[in-house]
Design goal:
With 114 residues, the chain is mainly β. The protein has no helices and ten strands.
């Protein structure tokens, strides 16, 4: 059964860092593009970043460029989102997705607050 499971969210102070993980099972990341999305209360879902396992190309939303880094480890079948210099506006539920499909993880909550 194809499954994505996110972890690594939590409460962090502004300026802090978190690493989110997206563990895949039932398929291999190799050959797919994995995306991270986020949704804050009362706001639409926003695409944050994605990475192609074919050529390693990446995309970042302007709001996170220079602060977030996406990566994937095919040996661990896991994608990561390293988030630095977090801001209160980064507070949201973060989900990973196989790009272009309806396969989503359950999400992990990130709260940035002092």
């Amino acid at each position: 059964q194809l499954q994505l499971v996110e972890s690594g969210g939590g409460l962090v102070q502004p300026g802090g860092s978190l690493r989110l993980s997206c563990a895949a099972s039932g398929f291999t990341l190799d050959g797919y593009t994995i995306a991270w999305f986020r949704q804050a209360p009362g706001k639409e879902r926003e695409g944050v970043s994605c990475i192609s396992s074919l050529d390693g190309s990446t995309y970042y939303a302007d709001s996170v460029k220079g602060r977030f880094t996406i990566s994937s480890d095919n040996a661990k079948n896991t994608a990561y989102l390293d988030m630095n210099n977090l801001k209160p506006e980064d507070t949201a539920i973060y989900c990973c997705n196989i790009w272009g499909t309806d396969y989503w993880g359950q999400g992990t909550q990130v709260t940035v607050s002092s």
